[in-house]
Design brief:
five-stranded mixed beta sheet, alpha+beta, 8 helices, 36% helix, elongated, 401 residues, six-stranded antiparallel β-barrel
């Protein structure tokens, strides 16, 4: 078994170790040492990173019997190496993990909400509570937690037989754990079994900042960040709110109000645009009806070819055209990097749109299908797409004549 130096002294940054195993791995080598300062991923906490004799260790994991270091270099079995922890990563992870204990204790102490899930990803940490809490309740828990941080309370690690845990004021107890257990305790605060690394006092956490809460499986998921991650997140959001204020020509505290006004203006403009579009489409349809050829069955053939048209507007135009009795309708339009086409028959009109879509797919090199009464498809837009559209329009007129 590898001696876990990080468990007894989380501030230990380096150690000498003997190589017990070194095997080729998917990326680099899997190295097993007789002792290590590098924490393996587990208990919700991310793996440490660091070096072995200067070679990068990207990840550390623990199996039932070994702690395996994914290292960029190979080392002879039996050789002595120097293991160095990446202190920036270690401190980040300790701040998040200890902050999680403190914040979980705050929700438990104030509202009787239990932490039933803990996840730490790069720049995102979450806890799942077994009951719903409001945003104001979350803020009160955040205040409670930060007071414990700023009081710089001692954080201690002890090893106790499981039989002694019943007498401790623990936030949660796992009756399945037996033997000698590792207990992390915050003075006048959280007491919990834990395998992770923690600072020796809460002040090292620096800051606990909740960034989001949402309902989750009958309870609440709380997203938060601590220490350096919280600071950098606050800076990023400060830049965003300042940029938004500058763009809206308003003070930062009035950005939401300005956005509300902007949304109202946009809604008004969209309504005007819809009305104008409706008028244009009605005028276009009247022009098409006046100029449309009539096929042998007495149906007018309406073909509209549009440059840079919105799919929603095209669908509306198509619907109006196919509402007209005894018409054969086609809308062919470019939208960005695509050419789309729709074909339909008005009430009482004979014809076969399946035959038209097959010809359209052939001309444009596209894909599409449908039924006798209606069909649609599309293709990548290429140079000369309008010429192809006119070719297809001629085919439609001839096919229906």
């Amino acid at each position: 078994m590898t001696e876990k130096l990080y468990e007894r002294d989380s501030n230990l940054k380096t150690c000498e170790a003997t190589v017990l195993e070194c095997e080729p791995a998917t990326q680099g080598y899997a190295v097993v040492l007789d002792r290590t300062v590098l924490f393996p991923e587990g208990g919700g906490q991310l793996s440490d990173t660091g070096t072995i004799n200067g070679a990068q260790v990207s990840h550390v994991r623990e199996t039932k019997e070994k702690i395996i270091h994914n290292c960029a270099a190979e080392f002879p079995v039996g050789s002595t190496v120097t293991v160095q922890v990446n202190w920036t990563d270690r401190l980040d992870h300790m701040q998040q993990h200890c902050g999680e204990h403190i914040l979980s204790y705050a929700f438990w102490k104030l509202y009787g909400a239990n932490n039933v899930g803990f996840h730490m990803n790069e720049r995102m940490v979450t806890i799942d509570l077994d009951k719903e809490v409001t945003l104001e309740e979350a803020f009160r828990a955040e205040d409670f937690a930060n007071r414990q941080v700023w009081e710089d309370l001692p954080v201690t690690v002890s090893y106790l037989p499981h039989t002694e845990l019943a007498g401790l004021p623990m936030r949660k107890k796992n009756e399945k754990l037996t033997g000698i257990l590792r207990v992390v305790a915050v003075q006048d605060g959280d007491v919990c079994t834990c395998c992770g690394t923690h600072p020796t006092s809460t002040g090292v956490v620096g800051l606990i900042k909740i960034t989001r809460i949402e309902k989750h499986k009958g309870g609440t998921r709380v997203e938060f960040l601590c220490g350096r991650w919280a600071l950098e997140d606050a800076r990023k959001k400060m830049r965003c709110i300042q940029d938004a204020g500058n763009m809206l020509s308003t003070k930062e505290e009035k950005v939401c109000e300005a956005i509300g006004r902007l949304e109202a203006e946009i809604a008004g403009l969209k309504e005007k645009l819809r009305a104008a579009m409706a008028q244009l489409q009605e005028s276009e349809i009247q022009s098409l009806l006046q100029e449309a050829p009539v096929n042998a069955a007495g149906c007018k053939v309406l073909v509209s070819v549009k440059e840079e048209y919105e799919p929603k507007a095209a669908k509306t135009l198509f619907g109006k055209m196919t509402d007209i009795p005894n018409t054969v309708a086609a809308v062919i339009y470019r939208s960005g990097e695509r050419v789309n086409y729709m074909f339909g028959l008005g009430p009482g009109a004979p014809g076969d749109c399946k035959a038209i879509i097959a010809r359209a797919n052939e001309i444009f090199g596209g894909k599409g299908g449908g039924k006798k009464e209606s069909a649609q498809g599309g293709a990548p837009c290429t140079e000369g797409w309008k010429a192809k559209a006119e070719q297809l329009a001629a085919v439609i007129r001839e096919a229906q004549a």
